[in-house]
Amino acid sequence: MAHSVQRIPDREILIDGQSYLYFGGTAYLGLQNYAPFKELYLTNVSKFGMHYGASRKANIALDIYKETEDHLAHWVGSEGCLSMSSGYLAAQLVVDHFIKKGHPVIATPYAHTALRINGVMTTQSFDELETLVSQKLSKNALAPVILFDTIDFSGKLYPNFDGLRQLPLEQLILVGDDSHGIGLVGSNGNGCFDMLQTLGAQKLLVCCSLGKAMGIQAGAVFGNSTDIEVLESTPFFGSASPASPAFMATLLGAKDIYSERLRVLGENYHHFRSLLKSPSFFVHLPGHPTFEFQNATLASRLEQKGFLFTNFNYPDANGPLVSRIVLSAYHTKKDIEQLCIALDTLLP
Predict the structure, then answer these.
(1) What are the start-end ranges of the E strands in the chain?
(2) Are 142 and 101 in contact (CB under 8 A)?
(3) Separation of CA 147 from chain center
(4) CA 13 to CA 27: how far, in whole Å?
(5) pLDDT tens digit sequence for 103-130
(6) CATH code matching the domain that covers 12-34+256-346, chosen among 3.40.47.10, 3.90.650.10, 3.40.50.150, 3.90.1150.10
(7) Is 70 helix (H, G, I), strand (E, B) or coil?
(8) 3-state SS class at 28
(9) In the chain, which end has fewer C-beta atoms inside a 10 angstrom radius, N or C?
């Protein structure tokens, strides 16, 4: 059941006068209503304004974009970084580039809609992916491009990326969407770029939304410096308005906030795991604060007990029902204990 609310969801939501504990969404670090983060953002709005609509290729350029991109590249472990106004746009920048260059572009099962634009071949299984890659390698001079979500909840990718390891990666270009990894997994939350580099692909680019764990309305692309320069020179990039400079400055200034909130989320995650008596009931990736299930009765009864969580058809009304418990840094230990007591009474 869908609910309309008047404020950004936090750990509690008020609906028709009733308070619910909220375990949904993608605000993994709980930053959207976190006072130190909001104060930092408002300070940067005072300095940079609400929005900057000029092209990044214009004759007047704001330093904050390059400063933040250099910081992100260093943190993630890539040579270069390019920011855009959303993760969706960042993904389409990369995919559009390879399609126009004539590369065969193939999406793995569960790849995000942002990656699956016109011209992309889709697959329904990793066996089908392997077969299609073999066919394209035998017929094309240009390297096939493989599109995937780093965190796709199937168990075939993060953390070991077995679904990719079965492929001849030295002949392939990998493009990963790390929207659900950046800020959460890896060394100090720096995402999956380092892990993916060890696979030995011919080339690697990673795109992401910065709006989930990191609370920044923007997107980014990571790769070697040459590829980033090529993407920066495209009409696709030059004709798009950039992310808000206030958001860029907030990301740059929030290093300590990110570290602290990631530590708190880690404590919440381990507390939940220690209390959860039926972990096998959920689809779960080790270390990731999401616990997916397919049981409409459980979803309904949890709501009756005062818990709301991610529970809707995705990506559209014809898509599968996604039911997912999401832990955040804004949850208290008591919130987690109450949820586990409810789960204990409802699960076999």
Answers:
(1) 12-15, 18-23, 80-84, 105-107, 121-122, 145-149, 173-177, 203-209, 219-223, 290-293, 307-313, 321-326
(2) yes
(3) 14
(4) 14
(5) 999 999 999 999 999 999 999 999 999 9
(6) 3.90.1150.10
(7) helix
(8) coil
(9) C
**Cis preceding-peptide flag for 242 (omega within 30 of 0):** no
Answer yes or no: are the C-beta atoms of 109 and 129 closer than 8 Å: yes
- Residue positions counted in the chain: 348
The residue ranges of the chain whose pLDDT is under 50 are none
For residues 64 and 245, the answer to whether their CB atoms sit within 8 Å is yes
Q: How far is CA 205 from CA 134, 144, 147, 152, in A?
A: 21, 13, 10, 17
How does pLDDT run across 286-328, given as a tens digit for each residue?
Answer: 999 999 998 888 989 999 999 999 888 877 777 777 899 999 9
Q: Residue 76 corresponds to which tokens in the numbers above?
A: 């993630």
Q: What is the identity of the amino acid at 34?
A: Y
CB atoms within 10 A of CB 327: 23
Instruction: Report domain extents, the chain.
Output: 12-34+256-346, 52-243
What distance in Å separates the CA atoms of residue 346 and residue 348, rounded to the nearest whole number?
A: 7
Element (H, E) at 63: helix 63-76
Correct CATH for 52-243 of 3.40.640.10, 2.60.40.10, 3.40.50.720, 3.90.550.10:
3.40.640.10
The DSSP symbol for 283 reads: B
Q: Is this model's pTM higher than 0.85 or not?
A: yes
